[in-house]
Amino acid sequence: MKERDWVVVGSTPEDMSARGFRQVGRDFPVFLHPDTGEEYALARTERKSGPGHTGFVCHAGPEVTLEDDLLRRDLTVNAMARDADGTLVDPFGGREDVERRLLRHVSDAFSEDPLRVFRVARFAAQLPGFRVAPETLELLRRMASQGMLEELSAERVWQELVKALASPAPERFFQVLEEAGAMSPWLRELRGLEPEFPADLESPEQRLGALAWSLPCQAVTDLCERLKAPKRFQQLAEHVAEHGRTLAAWSDRDPADVLAAVVAIGGVDRHRDPAPALAVVERCSGRSLDALRALIDELAAVGSAELLAQGFSGKALGEAIRRGRLERIRAAQDQLPNLSEKDR
Asked: What angle do CA 273, 279, 280 make, to 5 degrees?
């Protein structure tokens, strides 16, 4: 069984502490069981008090019922609970919606939190086969058209995007946002893109790289900086956008451009790994890059020891290493047939 979270009704923080539970929640009372470590949260309600995802005032008290607590959830499939004896508590039809494969909002309070637009899209990515209820999709459209998404922080949008990219059907995330007119302002570079994700690219970093395959590098940079993406995500995506097609068609490209692309992805740097970028380019282009991988090993082996022994140093040494690598690229290209014009 997966980890269980408990909702406690009819209690107070003082009562929970007296029973040996340890409080860990700052914004609302959440406690850890003294033996199992499971989370026990007091039933609570939420009231909108300001803009954005965090603009809520929470109230927890012994008068708050389980149904009150479930009412604040976003989707009916998340608004169910079980008693300790296993009895299902389902006041909003969540079980039926699971059977119907339907993502439906619980109440009009859904529209108080703009992050829920991205959460619904993310659930669609995590639950292939589930569709968004028409009334919920219309609510998403209204929230987006009213500019509510601008209230969100980059960090929260990024978290939802990463979770979606790690999901079984990441393309659904973008499809739902397109249908809701919710790609702007955060994901505006991806409008109309209809992304496809190769099945064997499973990491969020590489899937973001797959998105970048169809974008100009500046668009990728703008997107990543707006979302405050971690450096490793941004670098991989930028490398794919800027150098991907050169790497895919390396046997028919200028050796200087090929070398620049290989250097950019870390192919001659023993402290970096070019494999993630090469995997994205290979899957997105549909071309085998085994010969390029072998060439990269050769380029990395062009070292300075022999050249130093020949008297090269400083700038002259660097230029000699570069010439040696360009010669290796030309030799490798001569051993392979050129790509047709349509592949350039």
From this structure: 110
Determine the Cα–Cα distance for residues 80 and 69; give it in Å rounded to an integer: 10
**Would you state the structure tokens that stand for residue 327, as one six-digit string?**
């010669």
For the stretch 185-207, pLDDT in tens is 999 999 999 999 998 998 999 99
**Distances 190 to 38, 220, 222 between C-alpha atoms, Å:** 40, 9, 11
CA separation for the pair 165, 169 (Å, rounded): 8
Tokens (6 digits) for 197: 């994700």
Prior bond to 185 cis, omega within 30?
Answer: yes
86, 92, 178, 226 from 83: Cα distances, Å? 5, 16, 39, 44
pLDDT mean over 142-165: 97
CB-CB contact of 229 with 187 (8 Å)? no
Q: Rounded to two decimals, what is the model's pTM?
A: 0.86
- In the chain, pLDDT over 90 holds for what percent of residues? 77
Cβ neighbours of 171 (radius 10 Å): 18
Confidence of residue 59 (pLDDT cuts 50, 70, 90): confident
